[in-house]
Design a protein that fits this description.
single chain, alpha/beta
């Protein structure tokens, strides 16, 4: 079966067309079955394609000059969606002209446009933003929601757990991913009423393709003790920003320390293999590609500051979700949950 092509918002991101096309080209060199619908300013796209001749035969250009700004309000972006590169990329998924959309543009605008254009899957109340975060082990951890929903009730959290587990089986290949709810403590009595209710429902569930293991505290997110961490978008976004900030703090601190004296510079040369491994592990480009789970279509958000390798990783995330049919997996798992007769209030 041929892989559906991927609609790429070529205008999104801090670096613009050049990096987006270069990232797509890297992904295609890794997987020569990839095909693209490149949405954006045609002259700029053609100029970028000139340095990647292998992309020309695998790409179609949809000309669009208008771009959604990074600080543009989602409400205004929605009104302009059909005239912008981001909106047209998502619309291509809606019309069946692409299997997935990838954008490095405004996250709030992409979420709003995707929700309106693709709608939420039957049986789900809200979509969620999921991403891969590094851990101390060889595998990342999936965390959701990371900002799509500020407030979530127990039903939302249970649905996020189902979607996260389905995504985890594609990424990690585990039949029963370990799932935990983010909480202020691991004791069963800790947390809000919604967190408590969600935990009780997940404990009582029968037939779900996951192992619910209770709660996890924020300082254990990157320990690698579970495969999926579920929370509301408000807490998830704060946790994500705190992790990203801590990673930058550590790397900047190491840089300053190694530059502080001649002895430190010599120490840096000796320890360079270890510091390079640390840098690689903490580099967000190596974990790039957040996913809007729960929509009637695949939409992947690349980090705005991602380099070409980061964009390539986001494209590969979209392709993997198409190949393993994430939408059918979620539908199946949700059906199993409902079929067991477990009511989520």
């Amino acid at each position: 079966m041929s892989l559906p092509r991927i609609a790429l918002d070529a205008m999104g991101g801090d670096e613009g067309v050049r990096v987006m096309i270069e990232g797509a080209a890297i992904a295609r060199r890794r997987h020569d079955r990839f095909k693209f619908l490149l949405v954006g300013d045609e002259p700029q796209i053609k100029a970028a394609l000139a340095t990647h001749p292998g992309m020309a035969g695998a790409s179609e250009i949809l000309h669009c000059e208008d771009v959604i700004a990074g600080d543009e309000k989602p409400s205004r972006a929605l009104r302009r969606a059909r005239k912008t590169s981001m909106g047209l990329a998502v619309d291509a998924v809606k019309r069946g002209e692409a299997g997935a959309a990838v954008s490095a543009g405004n996250t709030g605008a992409l979420m709003a446009i995707s929700k309106v254009a693709l709608r939420t899957m039957p049986g789900l109340d809200r979509p969620a933003l999921a991403a891969l975060l590094p851990t101390l082990t060889d595998e990342d951890v999936i965390m959701l929601d990371l900002g799509a929903n500020r407030e979530c009730d127990a039903r939302n959290l249970v649905q996020f757990a189902i979607m996260g587990a389905a995504y985890s089986r594609i990424v990690f290949g585990k039949e029963r991913p370990r799932v935990r709810l983010l909480n202020i403590g691991t004791e069963e009595t800790k947390g809000t009423e919604d967190i408590q209710e969600a935990a009780n429902n997940l404990r009582e569930a029968v037939g779900l393709a996951m192992e619910f293991e209770g709660f996890v505290e924020a300082d254990k997110i990157n320990r690698g003790n579970c495969d999926v961490i579920v929370t509301d978008g408000f807490s998830g976004n704060i946790a994500l920003k705190a992790i990203e900030g801590a990673a930058r703090f550590v790397t900047d601190l190491l840089k300053d320390a190694f530059r502080s004296s001649l002895r430190s510079k010599i120490g840096f040369l000796v320890s360079r293999p270890a510091t390079e491994l640390l840098r690689h592990h903490l580099d967000p480009n190596n974990h790039n590609g957040a996913v809007f789970l729960g929509l009637n279509g695949v939409v992947v958000k690349s980090h705005g500051s991602a380099n070409a390798l980061g964009v390539a990783n986001a494209v590969e995330v979209a392709a993997r979700l198409l190949e393993d049919d994430i939408l059918e997996r979620i539908k199946h798992d949700l059906g199993q949950f409902v079929g067991d007769g477990l009511a989520v209030k």
